[in-house]
Structures are given as structure tokens and as C-alpha cells.
Design goal:
This protein is mostly helical and about 140 residues long. The protein has 6 helices and 2 strands, in the order H-H-H-E-E-H-H-H. It has one domain: Orthogonal Bundle (Arc Repressor Mutant, subunit A). A two-stranded antiparallel sheet has the order 1-2. The model has no long low-confidence stretch (mean pLDDT about 95).
Length: about 140
């Protein structure tokens, strides 16, 4: 399940993707338009900046903006940064692997093989879902 932090991050990034190339956007504007608590959003945007998804500009006319094009930022990257593992079991995680204590033989575990398939399909969908695609779908759905 996605955390509130992760959902807010995605909403903020889609908002910034809609304004890509128009200059930095202030935190207050994002918070107001996306109905995200400002203090929470500040921490989220800082984490996204540290994760090299966003960049920021200080001073007058400052704010946050995407460090890369919306086509280059996919949901896999955002979820891993703000939510952690995508896999439902630690024994199938690519970046957060841990063996299961109760598993006798990991290679022959039918539960694990099922969840490997789920992980692979989930990663495929999330990797193809970039910010540009989300913006495009959002615009289409508004019509």
C-alpha cells in the first residue's frame, strides 16, 4: 500500500510536470492546489530534491522544479524513494532483499515464485508510467 507521503509526492510531481519549463513553483502554491499540508510537503520535496528528481531555486521567483523531463521520471523511482520497496515480500525485492525466516527452500517456494511474477508485472507497469503519461491522462480525464 502506498503511504500518504508517497501519494502526496506523486500529486506534487504531477503538478510540477504540468508546469515543466515554466520556472520554479513555490511550495505554498503546490500545497494549496494539491491540498497537501505545507510542512509535510516541505519534507517530501526536500527528499525528492535529495533523490535528484527535483531541483530548487532560492530567493525571489524561487521554488521547486523537475530536474529532468517528465518523460524521464517514472513511478518506480518515486515510489522507491518515498515509500520503499515495491515488492510485496522482502524475498522478491530487487533493492530491499531480505530472506524470509519461515522459508525452508527459497528456490522452490511457490509463494515466492508467484510474488516474483507480481513484482515483475508491477515494475513493468510502474516503469512505463512516467510523469508525462500521468499529466496526459489527467488532461484527458478532465475533458
Amino acid at each position: 500500500m502506498l503511504s500518504k507521503k508517497c501519494k502526496y509526492a506523486i500529486h506534487a510531481l504531477v503538478y510540477l510536470a504540468e508546469r515543466h519549463g515554466q520556472g520554479p513553483v513555490q511550495i505554498g502554491e503546490i500545497a494549496d492546489r494539491q491540498k497537501i499540508p505545507k510542512k509535510f510537503l516541505e519534507a517530501i520535496l526536500l527528499e525528492l530534491r535529495n533523490g535528484r528528481i527535483l531541483n530548487s531555486k532560492k530567493g525571489k521567483g524561487g521554488g521547486y522544479y523537475l530536474q529532468r523531463s517528465p518523460e524521464e521520471i517514472n513511478l518506480t523511482e518515486v515510489i522507491r524513494l518515498t515509500n520503499g520497496p515495491i515488492a510485496l515480500l522482502p524475498c522478491v525485492s530487487l533493492n530491499f532483499y531480505e530472506s524470509c525466516e519461515e522459508c525452508v527452500n527459497e528456490k522452490n517456494c511457490t509463494i515466492r515464485t508467484t510474488f516474483l511474477t507480481i513484482r515483475d508485472e508491477t515494475l513493468k507497469i510502474l516503469s512505463e508510467s512516467n510523469l508525462a503519461a500521468l499529466v496526459k491522462k489527467q488532461k484527458k480525464d478532465r475533458k
